Amino acid sequence: MPLRNRLRLLAISGLALFTVSASLPPAAADGPRSHRPSGGGLSATIRYTEYGIPHILAKDYASLGFGNGWAQAADQVCTLADGFVTLRGERSRYFGPDAAPDGSLSSATKNLSSDLYFRSVRQSHTLEKLLRTPAPAGQSRDVRELERGWAAGYNAWLAQNRISDPACRGADWVRPVTALDVVARGFALSVLGGQGRAIDGITGAQPPTGAAQVPEAPSPGDAADAARRLLSTQNADMGSNAVAFDGDTTANGRGLLLGNPHYPWQGGRRFWQSQQTIPGELNVSGGSLLGAPTMSIGHNANIAWSHTVATGVPLNLHQLTLDPADPTVYLVDGRPERMTKRTVSVPVKGGGAVTRTQWSTRYGPVFTSLGAGLPLPWTATTAYALNDPNAVNLRFSDAGLGFSRARSTADIEAALRRTQGLPWVNTIAADSSGHSFFSQSQVLPRITDELAERCSTALGRATYPSSGLAVLDGSRSGCAPGSDRDAVQPGIFGPGRMPTVKDAPYVENSNDSAWLTNAAAPLTGYERVFGTIGTQRSMRTRGAVEDVSAMAAKGRLTVADLQRQQFANRAPAGDLVAGDLAAACAALPGGSAVGSDGGAVDVSAACDVLRRWDRKVDTGSRGALLFDRFWRRTTAAVAGAELWKVPFSPADPVGTPNTLNTSAPGVATALADTVAELRAAGIALDAPLGRHQSVERNGKRIPIGGGTESLGIWNKTEPLWDAAAGGYREVSAGSSYIQAVGWDGSGCPVARTLLTYSQSSDPGSAHYSDQTELYSAERWVTSRFCERDILRSPALRVVRVHERR
Predict the structure, then answer these.
(1) 665, 633 contact by CB (below 8 A)
(2) What's 537's DSSP letter?
(3) What are the Cα distances from residue 803, in Å, to 21, 23, 66, 81, 800?
(4) Inter-axis angle of helices 604-612 and 667-680, to 10 degrees?
(5) Fewer CB near the last or first residue (10 Å), C or N of the chain?
(6) Is the dihedral of CA 713, 719, 722, 725 positive or negative?
(7) According to the model, what pLDDT value does residue 29 have?
(8) CA–CA separation, 264 vs 734, rounded Å?
(9) Is the predicted pLDDT of residue 143 greater than 70, yes or no?
């Protein structure tokens, strides 16, 4: 090792380049059961490299958690603190009961319903009960130590630093946290797909009275349509693409992985990038969801993994038959059972409190809606209870820790089988030995097709085939979900039932079901609750399968090929539609089409723009914005059966449907409305996309490439339209923590990463938008994983953080 690097290593291990001492407010440390801020003399070394990426070095798990909590607070204190207000049920107290939370931790539409739910979780001591469950059904000791340390590190940063971020500078709601607060964050993430979808319905459920107006229940057909829309992964603010290639397709016989999760760009479901190291025990790099003590997506020296939001439905409903004399009593096998109730009080801004009663059954909480589109009224004869098996699952972090320790895809599979901790995602992985791996290993209620056939109510017979949402007869005990022998907890599928593909040339998922994980060998045999088989795929899945199957067939792949795929920005919808649309446009009599207001619009200039468009959504693509606005209108207005001349065929799921039906009512209207819209906004029809799709950071406009879900773009971007401001002027969700990983036999992984929205949410930070500018320019960060690469960083800054005893 060169003398300069040896001297740097001595500086790091000894005096360090810069030392920060931290102490907590006087309080004794305790485990997750403590309701006091954590303590205990913990310490860690944080080495910062380019773009503010911390490499956290610690002697044990509690100390690693400490460094993690400290570093996350340094970058994201306001976002984290806002989330802890949510988890403590205090939003109404600080922000008012009628304001809306940011949606990161629940579906609640108002602070009051959010507070009622999370206060009920705390008052029922749900978390403490789950923490007393021994592993593997409960958390491991190592994860509890990470959580204890994370809380201590967050508190230490608060105690020794002044907040500069104007989002919470001087705010009285920024307070120290306990390990139980960290656990609560993991719980909230676990139930996002279950109870988290129904918080308004849970907190608003009240037994009917004679004076109350009970809303009308939807018809089974309407309920089926609503459930399909609600549970569609294509409509969610979280999605993802991921592909793993096995060694037969790569240049050196080793595996490759490209992970491209699509998550919100603001709020508490952002990723945060780091490396976590305990010498001889753990060494992993990647992205963590904010507040998480373990890596969510990442790589180590031997494996890389990513996740995609899965199609499995992690909840089911039980339709209750009520005692005619008392709507809080339900019948099971002809015997009455009384609902349990809990009274919850929420302090509100300005003084006073709001008190509500929440009701529960043997199946779970009583609730009255799954979002505004699916009301489930509590009447004198019928009520509904929600079964969410993830409400007893705190194993999310143990799964992440298991992946972080893994040395092969076989170890990834073993971690999934051991923990069964993932509530709503698939796992895709590759390793340095050349293996590829996919598994839809989710915590799902054990709803078999046979059980649904035998026990579905009339409502369930409509919703289960359409969406996978089972509505079971709660009056029969034999209609509860069963259990598998190999399951970690009762009432869920065991690991042996999970759709899994190993060592295929490629495994890919873009938020459709597991069916076309490898299109050459479709995966079948799983229950409907996991997802569909033989149904139309999304435009993004179709484009992704076309791309990755062609890559696998070409072979001799490298990390550079993954990087090119990430920013290919091909628009599959454009490939299918733009040519026919341009021809139909040119054939319009007089070059005009009738808009939705009945007026004629001259669209002739759009024809040539569409013909010349490069079918991409690069920032310089001319015509991309025109097609984007047209396609959004068309897919919203024209039914799928009318949109295409060639319908979907299970025999050609990637190639069908195809051929735009240009004569379908609504197509020409959508073109007219789009041309009128862009002209009214002063936007040229052939303007480069990046001129009108951008974000603004500290007064600087940063062009953003990529495109919306319906276009089928791998590099997904969900921008917010503001015609008055000149187009798309912010991104709500899309590509987030991206990693392209391979191996070359050197012992150091070949990894390129990007955190699209950058590390810090503080506008005053040097790392508020630096990676966003890289993303705009389609440039990558070279991962500094090995010690020699960390020490060679020209931006190296070392911080020693510790508690003062």
Answers:
(1) no
(2) P
(3) 7, 5, 9, 20, 10
(4) 100
(5) C
(6) negative
(7) 28
(8) 7
(9) yes
- What residues contact 503, with CB distance under 8 A and at least 6 apart? 246, 435, 436, 437
State the residue for tokens 């307070």.
175
Please choose, from the candidates 435, 474, 217, the residue with its C-alpha nearest in 3D space to the C-alpha of residue 331. Answer: 474
Query: By the 8 A CB rule, do 531 and 311 touch?
Result: yes
* Angle (deg, nearest 10), helices 141-160 and 179-190: 120
Q: Once rounded to an integer, what is the mean pLDDT over residues 279-302?
A: 98
Percent residues over pLDDT 90 in the chain: 90
First to last CA, the chain: 37
**pTM over 0.90, yes/no:** yes
Could you tell me if 188 and 196 are in contact, meaning their C-beta atoms sit under 8 angstroms apart? yes
Task: Return phi, psi of residue 262, to 5°.
Answer: -110, 110
Q: How far apart are CA 760 and CA 757, in angstroms?
A: 8
CA dist., res. 90 & res. 95, Å (int): 8
Q: Are 119 and 374 in contact (CB under 8 A)?
A: no
Options 114, 190, 240, 432, the catalytic residue = 240
Could you give the CA distance from residue 152 to residue 23 in angstroms, rounded to a whole number?
Answer: 9
Is residue 497's pLDDT more than 60? yes
DSSP 242-272: EEEE-GGGBSSS--EEEEEEEEESSSTT-EE
Amino acid identity, position 398? D
Q: Which residues contact 21 (CB under 8 A, 6 or more apart)?
A: 160, 802, 804
> In 3-state terms, the chain is what percent helix, strand and coil (to 5)?
35, 25, 40
How many residues are present in the chain?
805
Cα distance between residue 471 and residue 481, in whole Å: 11
Instruction: Sort residue 719 into left (φ over 0), alpha (ψ -120 to 50) or beta.
Output: beta
- Under 8 Å between Cβ of 485 and 463: no
Q: Are 56 and 288 in contact (CB under 8 A)?
A: no
Check residue 702 and report its DSSP letter. E
**Letter for the amino acid at 279?**
P
Name the residue type at position 561. Answer: D
Residues whose CB is less than 8 angstroms from the CB of residue 267 and which lie 6 or more positions away in sequence, other chains included:
79, 102, 103, 104
DSSP annotation of 371 reads: S
Parallel, antiparallel or unpaired: strands 436-439 and 500-502: antiparallel
Q: What is the DSSP string of 151-184?
A: HHHHHHHHHH-----TTTTT-TT-----HHHHHH
Count the neighbouring beta carbons within 10 Å of the beta carbon of residue 764: 11
Are the beta carbons of 623 and 610 closer than 8 angstroms?
A: yes
Element containing residue 307 per DSSP (H, E): strand 303-309
Q: Which residue has the tokens 């040395």?
A: 407
* Token reading at 297: 């997506």
Question: At residue 321, does pLDDT exceed 50?
Answer: yes
Mean pLDDT over 619-627 rounds to 98
User: How confident is the model over 253-267, as pLDDT tens digits?
Assistant: 999 999 999 999 999
- State yes or no: is 538 an active-site residue: no
Q: What is the DSSP letter of 574?
A: H
Cβ atoms of 29 and 147 within 8 Å: the answer is no
**Both structure tokens of 339:** 């609902």
Give the integer Cα–Cα distance in Å for 641 and 597. Answer: 25
Single-letter amino acid, residue 186: G
Contact 436, 430 (CB under 8 A): yes
> Measured at the alpha carbon of residue 268, what is the angle toward residues 266 and 274, in degrees to the nearest 5?
95
Amino acid at 227: A
Q: Which amino acid is at 675?
A: V
Is the pLDDT at 459 greater than 50? The verdict is yes
How many CA atoms lie within 13 Å of 156's alpha carbon, on the beta-carbon side? 33
Rounded Cα gap, residues 48 and 275, in angstroms: 10
φ, ψ dihedrals at 456, nearest 5°: -65, 140
- Give yes or no for a cis peptide into 136 (omega within 30° of 0): yes
Place of tokens 């319908």: 647
Q: Which two tokens stand for residue 134?
A: 């021994």
